[in-house]
């Protein structure tokens, strides 16, 4: 397979050739922190994408992925020169660059989801992963502070993401590259302890390799490859932690890998190995019949080999091997080869299914019926988080909100106090109104002012229950500051009347007939007035009702004057 550089040199007028020249020129004055030309990085990224066998637009976008953010080329220029698809992919990668993970409290799963949601197209994720792989390979050139942050982000976000996409090998490599930056002491310890074990295991396996080959061939199985895979440093360390750091308990420090052509040959080879060497109970794993959640398929077994040494075998077909290496990316191959029939709209994929489950289903589906490339192409368009958006705090934390959420929802999500004292917001550095609709990938900054209170208007546009509840509570409290403003619930009637026997009884029966409850009734002889005054407290604040009542009371003989006030 020709490298990207070879392709570019042999066909300078092809999209890859043009992107190569364009990127070389765009980054010509830039150097990486290692002192290397910056262009080396984008070329390396494109080369990685090439080895994953991704399509031409992805490789073009790989070459251009830093042109906007790091070389200041306007997106418009990319559009003119390379078209809409390239712009879409480059812009997607640029947006992903805004996420800066610092091991903050934000939920990790959110971060990973956001990477997918922001990408909208898995090819954007692939470019980001290729970019990250090369950055990790060259991480030693960066200052320690940055090394730590990038290694952590790789460990927490990108390696698990690669794993979920079925890119097992890439995931392992990313974990391994991050390991020495995150666990320097442990790395040195492993180096000392494990190295000799690795070496002696390898020698042992080299010795028995002809035995395996012979056994298979004698029984009609022609192995494609028999090789050995040393356990990844990072996963070895995790495993050692579970086994009291006892290296003798690690049976798969170096595993023998047998690759054959067909599935029956996998089971055949397993049988032959068991016939020759006794398997350890409980360690036979059939990931062909039951693939791992990320789609990994293989047969695993651990046997007691020659010299009573324990060996782990992994047996799989060539196709499985490819899929285990390239994961979901391996399907681009099918897409490029075949033409499609009927489609399943990704819209039909319900949002309730968790995204991991969904990825798994995709993998399953396209493995079983990989003659429907269009379905897969459709499914590559990530829109299964349609009703959620993922936005970023200025510190790089990810906040998961419903679609249509506003800066006010964002503020209340952070903290009720942030919500209550929010007076404005900036989205990607630009001031926006508080009812501005946020979009995935926006960096949102809330402008605060002390002792500010929310207004009832906010209730008209907020989307989250959290925001609504807090606003209502704050509005109630606000009312509490000025008790007078509280809605009245009762009234006091003031009745001036002549001194007549039975008059008070007449008044109270009229009030009762109007279905109004009397709370209090008292008569006083006020000085300076020759008539007594009745004060009646009634349990209504309904003005119309009260005014009607007053008309009735006034019609009673002996009543001179009636007035009221609400209380
Ligand atoms: Mn880059």
Spatial shape: elongated
What is the name of the CATH superfamily of the largest domain? Hypothetical protein af1432
Number of extended strands: 14
Write down the CATH class of the largest domain: Mainly Alpha
Number of helices: 21
Main beta sheet strand tally, sense and closure: 5 strands, mixed
**And the CATH topology of the largest domain?**
Hypothetical protein af1432
Rounded to an integer, what's the Rg over CA atoms?
A: 37 Å
- The order of strands across the largest sheet is 1-2-5-4-3
Tell me the β content.
5-15%
Determine the N-to-C terminus distance.
Answer: 89 Å
Q: Which CATH architecture of the largest domain would you pick?
A: Orthogonal Bundle
Mean pLDDT: 81
Classification by helices and strands: alpha+beta
| List of distinct ligands in this structure | manganese (II) ion
Q: Could you explain the architecture of this structure?
A:
By secondary structure, this protein is α+β, with helices and mostly antiparallel strands. It folds into four domains: 4-167, Hypothetical protein af1432, CATH 1.10.3210.10; 184-326, Beta Polymerase, domain 2; 387-483, Ubiquitin-like (UB roll), CATH 3.10.20; 491-566, Alpha-Beta Plaits (2-Layer Sandwich), CATH 3.30.70.260. It contains 21 helices and 14 strands. A hairpin with a 5-residue loop joins strand 6 (388-392) and strand 7. The protein is elongated. The termini are far apart. The structure holds manganese (II) ion. The site of manganese (II) ion has 4 residues, from loops.
Short recap of the structure:
This protein is an alpha+beta fold and 567 residues long. It contains 21 helices and 14 strands.
